[in-house]
Specification:
Beta-carbonic Anhydrase, Chain A, 60s Ribosomal Protein L30, Chain: A, six-stranded mixed beta sheet
């Protein structure tokens, strides 16, 4: 297990180095595409939007929870998302919200365990969440614009659900010139502001480029669930090696349920022989400046203890195979520090 913990530390180190090296690229991207981009997605670690869309690290701000289940009535989520929108407005920017579900075209049981592999239920739930965002921020508003997107995880294909009912599978799109893609976006989302259209374009184009590169290299994807890390909290943009971790955000008031579900998935991975017995609980919190670090440490330690208690209560047989870490992550470098 020590070697697995060392693996996590090394993964974070490499991601932090890459994140820091992309600062100028990130600044240039934001100068050209100022729209604030937020994504709501599942805890499944395979869903790594910077890779799927070929955008620099840190451009798409993620919210994660089991199955991509969210509700803006949750107090912490309500405040966090509204603050993101407000910061963008003060900068004179709009917000594009990617509301996502995911599935596997090859095998339903490689899909979303958070919805018991029922893609239609997942799609229905996320469509309702998109509608909730519209209801709160205005049905035809030009400041916060949510779109429903499916992610096919076998090939990392985006599925665009147009506001007019049309569905576009990016794996079947042949026109790759920008003019054709802009027309497609306008057709799918006729009320989308031109600024957001321009900033949605590189995300769509990046997915097409990624699909082309995957076909060219014919890489073998790691498709089957085989996670052994239960990550709880915030600051996990670096933790996206396929089938390594299940990531539970801190937003659900009943956070014990997604933690319990994630631990159950890891236990099932043992029972099906996908992994050796062992689970790493990784509790994380993010700080923006040194003044907040002490408070951040307390949040990480609380999440660590909470996760340990939930696993002990629901899966006592896992306790002897459990190792846990509390870490804090510097928002400016994405480097983590182990504190417990």
């Amino acid at each position: 297990m020590k070697s697995k913990i060392n693996l996590l530390v090394e993964l974070n180190k490499k991601h932090s180095e890459l994140f820091c090296s992309q600062k100028l690229e990130r600044d240039l991207y934001r100068a050209n595409h100022p729209t604030n981009v937020v994504a709501f997605k599942c805890m499944d670690g395979r869903i790594h939007l910077p890779v799927i869309t070929q955008t620099p690290l840190g451009i798409i701000s993620p919210y994660r929870n089991m199955g991509g289940r969210f509700d803006l009535g949750w107090p912490l989520l309500n405040v966090s998302f509204d603050e993101s929108v407000s910061r963008a407005v003060k900068r004179g920017e709009r917000t594009l919200v990617l509301v996502t579900y995911h599935f596997s075209k090859g095998d339903a049981h490689r899909g979303c365990a958070g919805f018991s592999y029922n893609c239609e239920e997942s799609k229905k739930f996320t469509a309702n969440f998109r509608d909730q965002i519209r209801r709160i921020y205005g049905e035809n508003n030009q400041v916060v614009f949510p779109v429903l997107i499916g992610i096919e995880t076998d090939d990392d294909v985006l599925i665009l659900h147009g506001d007019n009912g049309e569905v576009v599978d990016m794996g079947e799109v042949e026109e790759e010139d920008e003019a054709s893609l802009v027309l497609m976006i306008r057709r799918l989302f006729p009320n989308m502001p031109e600024r957001i259209v321009s900033d949605f374009l590189p995300i769509i184009k990046g997915n097409l480029n990624q699909l082309g590169e995957k076909k060219e290299h014919k890489e073998e994807a790691q498709l089957v669930h085989g996670e052994w890390v239960l990550a709880v909290g915030k600051g996990f943009d670096w933790l996206h090696t396929p089938n390594l971790a299940l990531i539970v955000g801190p937003y659900d008031p009943n956070i014990g349920e997604p933690i319990k579900t994630a631990a159950g998935i890891i236990k099932a991975n043992w029972e099906f022989g996908r992994i050796e017995k062992g689970i790493v609980v990784l509790a994380s919190a993010v700080y923006a400046d040194a003044a907040d670090k002490t408070k951040t440490q307390e949040r990480a330690i609380f999440m660590q203890k909470l996760s340990e208690d939930i696993i002990a209560q629901n899966y006592p047989e896992m306790v002897e195979y459990m190792n846990s870490m509390a870490v804090v992550v510097d928002h400016n470098t994405m480097k983590m520090e182990v504190i417990g």
